[in-house]
Design brief:
This protein has 140 residues and is of the alpha+beta class. The chain has two domains: 44 residues, no CATH class; 85 residues, K homology (KH) domain (GMP Synthetase, Chain A, domain 3), CATH 3.30.300.20. Helix content is 30%, strand content 33%. The chain has three helices and five strands. The strands form two sheets. It has a three-stranded antiparallel sheet, with no helix packed on it. A two-stranded antiparallel sheet has the order 4-5. The protein is elongated. It starts with a strand and ends in a 12-residue tail after the last helix.
Length: 140
């Protein structure tokens, strides 16, 4: 199964603008810019999109982990905080913090924590963020 996201960028790094879209149409020409990475400007940025994807994946995977242990969550709310900082050679994502709050009947704190910690390592987006990256690039 393949899923696609796309981006179009015009202009220089600092003054340019771009849009991102998703194959499903859930994201359709969402504006993003260099400035939106460092100040709130009403546009998106790659880091918040990664954060949203990670939070969504984690919540879904936690639901699966809880279900596999015989529990059903009434709700799972996750926020992923993506930290981007100067690193050697430019900027880099230096850490991600997941903050999750779930309502699950009949589960004790220790069991919940075990499942939540296992999910942190096992959700597909968490795995991606530690994976090697390959590239195919060509000129038009």
């Amino acid at each position: 199964m393949d899923r696609k996201g796309s981006a179009v960028w015009s202009g220089t790094l600092k003054e340019g603008k771009g849009t991102v879209s998703s194959e499903s149409g859930a994201l359709n020409n969402i504006a993003y810019s260099f400035a939106s990475r460092f100040v709130t400007e009403g546009e998106s940025n790659p880091e918040e999109l990664i954060g949203a994807a990670h939070a969504g994946c984690y919540s879904m995977a936690l639901s699966g982990g809880l279900g596999g242990a015989g529990f059903t969550a009434k709700s799972i709310a996750t926020t992923a905080t993506i930290t981007i900082e100067p690193v050697e050679g430019g900027f880099g994502i230096t850490k991600i913090h997941l903050d999750c709050e779930a309502e699950v009947e009949g589960i004790d704190a220790v069991t919940f924590d075990e499942i939540a910690q296992a999910t942190k390592l096992g959700c597909p987006v968490s795995k991606l963020l530690n994976a090697p990256i390959s590239l195919s690039a060509k000129l038009k």
